[in-house]
Design brief:
- There is one protein chain.
- The protein has 249 residues and is α/β, with parallel strands linked by helices.
- The protein has 9 helices and 15 strands.
- It has a 7-stranded parallel beta sheet with strand order 6-5-4-9-12-14-15, sandwiched between helices. Strands 1-3-2 form a 3-stranded antiparallel beta sheet. Strands 10-11-13 form a 3-stranded antiparallel beta sheet.
Length: 249
Amino acid sequence: MLNQERYKLILDIINERNTVTVAELSKELDTSESTIRRDLTELDRLGKIKKFFGGAASVRENEGFFEDKVSVRENLMHEEKTLIAKYASSLISDSDFVYIDAGTTTSRLVDFITNARATYVTNGITHGRKLIHKGFNTYIIGGKIKHTTEAIIGAEGISSLKNFNFSKAFLGANGIDLSAGFSTPDIEEALIKQTAIAKSHTSFVLADNSKFRRVFPVTFSELNKCCVITDILPDNRFSKETIIKEVSK
């Protein structure tokens, strides 16, 4: 096998798993450990990975604070979001007091909710409008409106949430990572999510497969604090950290 071919295979494995040992690479690529170590040294020198004693880790680039507008994100992963939203809507019972986070996947959830006996609280402007048009018992928290996500955020929003005790919360996330947990670009939105989770008996993060192995500036929860509903789980190691439901066709 040529060096460049082996480099590519090594990078693919490390980027998929985040970390890997020399022994694992040696076995999978049927290559001596001394060769693997030299390869890792070279890839580390090139800035492609981070080498450590006995193995290597992926170089995770922070996704940064930039976030697309709702109108842009609504059209991304449309089928996957629909599958996730349909399943999540089936989890709502008559007696539930439900928090629904702002976001495009949670907006899709609102489209599929049929339970008119539950009570709903949201920080999403469009979510609230959809819920009342369905005739549901709906509350919207107070606070500052964030332009890009149409979410209500800020100290007043947090204060509002602290008055409630939710049976279920449905939240969005920009990134899901084994080390960084659930993350988002915005500090104020992260604090709203964090408060909602703390005030909920059970919290569900609705996230398509593209959200996994991504890290944004602000972590709002550890993985074990929320269940995840996704279409396809790209890495089975996540299922060791929390409950994950896959709803692919």
